[in-house]
Design a protein that fits this description.
This protein is an all-alpha fold. The protein has one domain: Farnesyl Diphosphate Synthase, CATH 1.10.600. 76% of the residues lie in helices and 1% in strands. The protein contains 18 helices and two strands. It has a two-stranded antiparallel ribbon. The chain is globular.
């Protein structure tokens, strides 16, 4: 995200996160000299990069209702969303066997190197994920909002957490309904949930929340489709992951679902030489990528992504949201549609 308002949101959220990590390191040292290791692991992942999309969506949702105090008021809640994201990434990387994240080692990989033992590294990573989750709840419960709004916002935060865990469960078992997985896993806590959280904390009414749902749901799914495309066709220097990473990990992405619906036995043979094979050669990965293009899977996913963004833009017509807020939403839509990492 290059636009100035998103950079400003990221700056405020990063400052809040840095202060939190410093406080928690000091608290951990009171327990043991070894205790800060988990805080350091979370901080390294969280501060290494990331688009800060969720805090930006929360801020935009808030501004759709009011601009009163938006900058200061949304920093804690935005930081809470980033820590929820870190918790999910830590678990997701271990589940998928991904050793890279944001241009550096995944948390389980970093801790494995530190301790020289894969099981211990994974166990410590799960504890780091638990801690990140707890810190996210600590931040949201102390966010500076009136009691009634905060209580409703915490309920929305809990709903996001519930839906994304359900979506991850379905993803792990390769549930056949990829659209449902996207609805739960990305639609919930990537755009729709943060938008609604921001609007709730700003005092939005039912009609405004409904509009944000109509906008946020297709944008969230579009974000996941773009992620699927980048995971197979993205530039590693921009994505921070190896080329073909999703294929080697055997992820049941929208591309794979589209391909399986059309490929014959011979085509599936080409795909299966790369899919889920950690030792797949570069030639096998390239053959699979070429196949995903030639069978039309890539084009169909790109067409659906474009249609979802159009649907989101249409949801903003004749809405009760503020003009400034809708401008931010349109900006987010344009950026998500063209992102390269």
């Amino acid at each position: 995200m290059q636009h100035s308002w998103t950079a400003d949101v990221a700056t405020r959220v990063n400052a809040r996160l840095a202060a939190l990590f410093e406080d928690k390191r000091a608290l951990a040292r009171e327990t043991s000299e070894a205790a800060p290791q988990l805080v350091d692991a979370i901080a390294d992942l969280t501060m290494r990069g990331g688009k800060r999309l969720r805090p930006c969506a929360l801020y935009a949702g808030y501004r759709c209702i009011t601009d009163h105090g938006a900058d200061a008021a949304t920093a804690d809640a935005g930081a809470a969303l980033e820590l929820l994201q870190s918790y999910l990434l830590i678990q997701d990387d271990w589940m998928d066997g991904d050793d890279e994240r944001r241009g550096g080692p995944a948390v389980h990989a970093a801790l494995t190197r530190q301790h020289g033992d894969a099981h211990r590294g994974a166990a410590l990573a799960m504890l780091a994920g638990d801690l990140a989750c707890g810190l996210s709840w600590e931040l949201i419960k102390d966010a500076p909002f009136p009691e009634g709004r905060l209580r409703e916002g915490i309920g929305a935060f809990a709903q996001m957490h519930w839906e994304v865990v359900c979506g991850q469960q379905l993803d792990v078992i390769e549930h056949a309904d990829v659209a449902l997985v996207h609805h739960l896993k990305s639609g919930s806590y990537t755009v729709r949930g943060p938008l609604q959280l921001g609007a709730i904390l700003a005092g939005g009414d039912a009609a405004q929340l409904q509009t944000l749902t109509r906008f946020g749901q297709p944008v969230g799914v579009a974000f996941q489709l773009r992620d699927d495309l980048l995971g197979t066709f993205g530039d590693p220097s921009r994505t921070g992951k190896s080329a073909g990473n999703d294929l080697r990990a055997g992820k049941f992405t929208s591309l794979i679902a589209e391909a399986r619906a059309t490929l014959d036995e011979s085509g599936m043979g080409v795909l299966n030489r790369a899919l889920g094979k950690r030792d797949a050669s570069e030639a096998d990965i390239e053959a699979a990528r070429t196949l995903l293009e030639s069978c039309g899977a890539r084009a169909r996913v790109e067409q659906r992504l474009s249609a979802l963004l159009d649907e989101a833009r249409g949801a903003l017509r004749d809405s009760a949201l503020s003009d400034d807020g809708m401008g931010l939403l349109r900006d987010l839509t344009d950026q998500l549609g063209s992102r390269e990492h």
